[in-house]
Design a protein that fits this description.
This protein is α+β, with helices and mostly antiparallel strands. The chain contains six helices and seven strands.
Length: 238
């Protein structure tokens, strides 16, 4: 019918608009984002050429390897963001038991952030909380939130969750400096860094928001009882 045809055209127009908007955002930001690891790679190559001994050369090769990994991570984040932003099909949702997912992610994070104490909150620790989601999606969200918290936490990060008849709430708390109220929405925009010294590619929280939005949920930055930031995500039951 004419109505169905019009709806199809509107849907196609919206999809095209999203593609154009995403391409514009990426073109504006990607060149800047790619220059940092590329500059480090070029610098490391120059240093390798002038290395005076095997130990010095090995150290500089390690720096080159780290820069290459960062570049690979950035490209992966860009591809994931484009895929999510343009609404390409996602994996089917399932009931995901949260405790083992969080335990595994904390174990990995602890290896690279030995100065931080990672804790599981008392409600999540009971082990009877699940979330209806794409397993890879919820894992990526929690991984990114832990990574973000680890960059700012001083000594402690706590992950806890609650569940009721309509949704599952997951909180990631840190004891860092927190996020000013005026920036709590802006941090979820792509390529936003609140400080020049902030590490990462500026897509971690944008990916978190996009994944959760695709699950009909929400993510909010709040003050944490630990004194820093609380990243609260809501996952609605289907």
């Amino acid at each position: 019918s004419a109505k169905q045809l019009a709806q199809a055209f509107n849907k196609m127009a919206s999809r095209t608009e999203a593609l154009v908007r995403t391409q514009r955002e990426l073109l504006q930001a990607v060149s800047h984002e790619l220059r940092t690891p590329l500059a480090r790679i070029n610098f490391a190559i120059d240093l390798i050429r002038t290395a005076g001994n095997a130990d010095e050369r090995e150290s500089r090769l390690n720096a080159l390897d780290t820069a290459a990994q960062d570049l690979n991570e950035l490209v992966g984040e860009l591809l994931q963001y484009v895929r999510l932003e343009t609404g390409l099909p996602q994996h089917a949702s399932e009931g995901v038991d949260l405790l083992p997912v969080v335990e595994e992610l904390i174990e990995k994070a602890s290896l690279t952030h030995i100065e931080i104490e990672f804790q599981i909150g008392p409600t999540l620790a009971r082990g009877d909380i699940s979330v209806v989601a794409d397993r890879n999606g919820v894992t990526r969200v929690l991984s990114n939130l832990l990574s973000n918290a680890s960059r700012f936490a001083r000594h402690r990060i706590v992950v806890d969750a609650t569940i009721d008849s309509t949704e599952t709430t997951i909180d990631v708390d840190d004891d860092g400096p927190g996020i000013p109220e005026t920036d709590r929405e802006r941090v979820f925009e792509p390529f936003v860094r609140l400080e020049e010294s902030d590490s990462g590619v500026g897509l971690g929280l944008a990916l978190v928001k996009r994944i959760i939005t695709n699950h009909n949920g929400t993510v909010t930055a709040l003050p944490s009882p630990l004194g820093g930031c609380r990243m609260r995500t809501f996952w609605r039951k289907k």
